[in-house]
Amino acid sequence: MRQFSFLKITCSILLLAVTFLTLLSFSVLAQTNTPPEENRFTKKTLATKLDEPTELVVLDDQRVLFTERKGKLKLYNPKTGKTKVVGEVPVYTKQEYGLMGLNIDPNFKTNKLIYLYYSPPSSEADTAQHLSRFKYDDVKDTLMLGTEELLLTVPVKRTDCCHTGGSIAWDSKGNLYLSTGDDVNPFQSNGYGPIDERPGRQGWDGQHSSSNTNSLRGKVLRIKPRYGDRRANMPGGTNLYDIPEGNLFPAGNPKARPEIYVMGTRNPYRISVDQHTGYLYWGDVGPDASVDSPKRGPRGYDEVNQARKAGYFGYPLFIADNKPYIDFNFADSTSGKPFDAAKPINNSPHNTGLEDLPPAQPAFIFYPYADSPEFGPIVGKGGRNAMAGPVYYAADFKDSKVKFPQYYDKKFFAYDWIRDYINIVTMNEQGDLTNIERFLPGTKFSHPIDMQFANNGSLYTLEYGPIWFAQNDEASLSHITYNAGNRVPVAAATASNTIGASPLKVAFSSKGSMDYDGDPIKYEWSFGKGLPKSTSPNPGFTYAKPGEYTAVLKVTDNAGNSNTSEVVIKVGNAVPQVDVAIKGNKTFYWNDKPVNYEVSVSDKEDGSLASKKIPDEEVTLTINYLEGFDKTQLAQGHQANTGFETGKRLIELSDCKACHSNDKKSIGPAYREVAKKYKSERNSLKTLTDKVLKGGSGVWGEQAMPGHPQHKPEEVEEMVKYILALANEKAVDKKPLKSTYVTEAKKKDGSYIFTASYTDKGNGNMGPLTGSKTIALRPAKISANTYDDGKDVAKFKLPEGTEVVLGSKNGSYIAFDDIDLSGISNIELATGFSEGVNSGGILEAHLDTPTGAKIGEVKVASAGTVSIPVKAADTRLHKLVLVFRNPEANAKPLFSIDWIQFNSALQ
């Protein structure tokens, strides 16, 4: 990926300073400058699990094109609600390279041109980034790769990281802006300005790129693409673009590239242009030092910048509001004078451009890892990745029901990728900052990476997700719309229990029902067809007869707007109670050690295992090994074992067994033959469900199959699901219900999953129910990054690919749910520590909360392995909380944790 240097990740995740907005009615909103209520906005997720999304563009018909770093161009179509790949550009993807930028031509309606900024998989001799345009087939929705026109190349080294930039924007005059990263490795500059002037160190010297007037790196470029007649009519252009007037350097100077509009940037990853003022905005991801240094200069800052005209913005000689770095000699570690922002000089031997640079321009907004004294808590603290979104003009967008309100007129949307927020920046007529406030503080954003207003005034956002260089489940395309009128009330119906034997007493609740406009609402409960109703918000009702009932809550405001919520109640059959008892530690296993277990089952109607009324053979216990410890996968694995048991039991209880069996033909075909015939047929579930309900003949012979109207359609559907599953069924490896299981060492770490299930026989007209219990024993050695809860910590990947967790401040913690410490003698941990970067400290182990009972601690002052002796604990499952302590850490992160191992006293 592009802009993010790995050291940045070692800093803490943000602490959001949330401002609660005053709630006013819509009529008042139209007359005041009060922020609109957050509940007037709806954020709808359109696509998820994207693979490193980078930039988006919204077409006039609300279709959305967006890019992914590994080279795919995708299209979301609101008519179908689906996303598809419409082009794939071959790209080089090591370090942070790939497909970074996307935009459409201002005349896309007629010329169908798309612009991409990407890293072609070229040879070592040709490692330039490409700005190209392509034709787009708007009928077939296909990027026509063969139509590529290469406008501009930006040479980069590709030997190591970092920073690619890559955003594409347009102004109202048809000028194209392209951001480029500095292509400098920051890791040997201790987080200060990289100005290593030693021979062969060009890749560590930002004076070779960002502050080099003859380099296109570390810049925002501005060109005017040409069409048709490509004879350049402005100096310094090519046959595909001209140089607009007003760029930083005039054409004709061999030591200054005329394409440069802004220089002295580190990694301007996302940019935007105010279409009315022409002001350019960008977020610049800054260096990583956490404290000021008398030898090197200021700590690191991220910047949000505003350029009202072409200019030099200082990096790597200046940062933030022109705080100067010190002219440091990397050869002998001596310090010279601070650089002069009024007369900056680039006399590095790596500089191929002008020595005398334009005066440095201060940042518009800037903030360090720690609290910002200049801008306060609204910009947050911790890890940082500043980015720039659009400036909203209400008059630019057609009237619509989803358009953002006048309150946001002429305001700038600035956001931070790591801190997961969007801020609204208010400016005066000259563009000077007057206020910053949070946009939708109660809405979750997972690393927002791009955004654009559609022509109807609604906002589309692209989110990258929390893990670097990975396909994240949270990586998403979303649509944010605004509702200016009276809102429909919210109905929320819940029940104390939804399944049970009769009589079944149920307590209903309307908790969560409300009206955003403050209108009084009326409640009406219907407990089922033919049953009494209630106008109480939280009534109780006893179902005397078996059956399936739909209870409906209707809420109505005084304007007549209503909404409903329902809950299904199944009466007449209780869910079987299934348990798996583990003797010994109930969280971990140790390789080659026995695990003693026993299954118990009881059912109100069928009896129990203990009484022998439920035969052993009707209870299933499986023990499987699942790589990793993903709770979602564990749930899915459990479902795979028990998901078709209801259908199987329904078949056993029906007349189907008179004519069919699983494997042998009888009067009717074997179920496995049916499964094989229909497994690849579209809509096979619906086809067979209809056939079972209505009957049929002629497919398997002369004997007709009668209909089965006595079964509910949903019951038949469960039966058909079971039959179709037989096509891929593997024999279930059933284990004894009481025994000892010996774990084995595996090639990859994972969890042993004990799953017990029983499907009862139903009761009367109530179908069978399945009870189950899953116990997961995880490896005694776990990765720190699998924590369930945390505060002021950051995950980051080391160059070798290992992901560790960093405690950023005194009191940071990570916590793990459902930990059994019985029989544990000590907790061993692999810690990371870097002198000068980390402060070290104490790692404490607590139960249940960060201030709960302390069971041990250890000092961390170097990298390596440490051990926390564990005091005797009870046999209950606890939340284990590991707390980072160092009151003297100041702004330095403490240390990191790679893995945690729980050692048994019995080993």
Automatic annotation (TrEMBL):
<dbReference type="Pfam" id="PF07995">
    <property type="entry name" value="GSDH"/>
</dbReference>
<feature type="domain" description="Cytochrome c">
    <location>
        <begin position="642"/>
        <end position="727"/>
    </location>
</feature>
<dbReference type="Pfam" id="PF00034">
    <property type="entry name" value="Cytochrom_C"/>
</dbReference>
<dbReference type="InterPro" id="IPR022409">
    <property type="entry name" value="PKD/Chitinase_dom"/>
</dbReference>
<feature type="region of interest" description="Disordered">
    <location>
        <begin position="196"/>
        <end position="217"/>
    </location>
</feature>
<dbReference type="Pfam" id="PF18911">
    <property type="entry name" value="PKD_4"/>
</dbReference>
<dbReference type="InterPro" id="IPR013783">
    <property type="entry name" value="Ig-like_fold"/>
</dbReference>
<dbReference type="InterPro" id="IPR036909">
    <property type="entry name" value="Cyt_c-like_dom_sf"/>
</dbReference>
<dbReference type="InterPro" id="IPR011041">
    <property type="entry name" value="Quinoprot_gluc/sorb_DH_b-prop"/>
</dbReference>
<dbReference type="InterPro" id="IPR006584">
    <property type="entry name" value="Cellulose-bd_IV"/>
</dbReference>
<keyword id="KW-0479">Metal-binding</keyword>
<dbReference type="InterPro" id="IPR035986">
    <property type="entry name" value="PKD_dom_sf"/>
</dbReference>
<keyword id="KW-0249">Electron transport</keyword>
<dbReference type="InterPro" id="IPR000601">
    <property type="entry name" value="PKD_dom"/>
</dbReference>
<dbReference type="Pfam" id="PF03422">
    <property type="entry name" value="CBM_6"/>
</dbReference>
<keyword id="KW-0408">Iron</keyword>
<keyword id="KW-0349">Heme</keyword>
<feature type="domain" description="PKD">
    <location>
        <begin position="518"/>
        <end position="571"/>
    </location>
</feature>
<dbReference type="InterPro" id="IPR008979">
    <property type="entry name" value="Galactose-bd-like_sf"/>
</dbReference>
<dbReference type="InterPro" id="IPR011042">
    <property type="entry name" value="6-blade_b-propeller_TolB-like"/>
</dbReference>
<dbReference type="InterPro" id="IPR009056">
    <property type="entry name" value="Cyt_c-like_dom"/>
</dbReference>
<feature type="signal peptide">
    <location>
        <begin position="1"/>
        <end position="30"/>
    </location>
</feature>
<dbReference type="InterPro" id="IPR002324">
    <property type="entry name" value="Cyt_c_ID"/>
</dbReference>
<keyword id="KW-0732">Signal</keyword>
<dbReference type="InterPro" id="IPR005084">
    <property type="entry name" value="CBM6"/>
</dbReference>
<keyword id="KW-0813">Transport</keyword>
<protein>
    <submittedName>
        <fullName>Cytochrome c</fullName>
    </submittedName>
</protein>
<dbReference type="InterPro" id="IPR012938">
    <property type="entry name" value="Glc/Sorbosone_DH"/>
</dbReference>
<feature type="compositionally biased region" description="Polar residues">
    <location>
        <begin position="207"/>
        <end position="216"/>
    </location>
</feature>
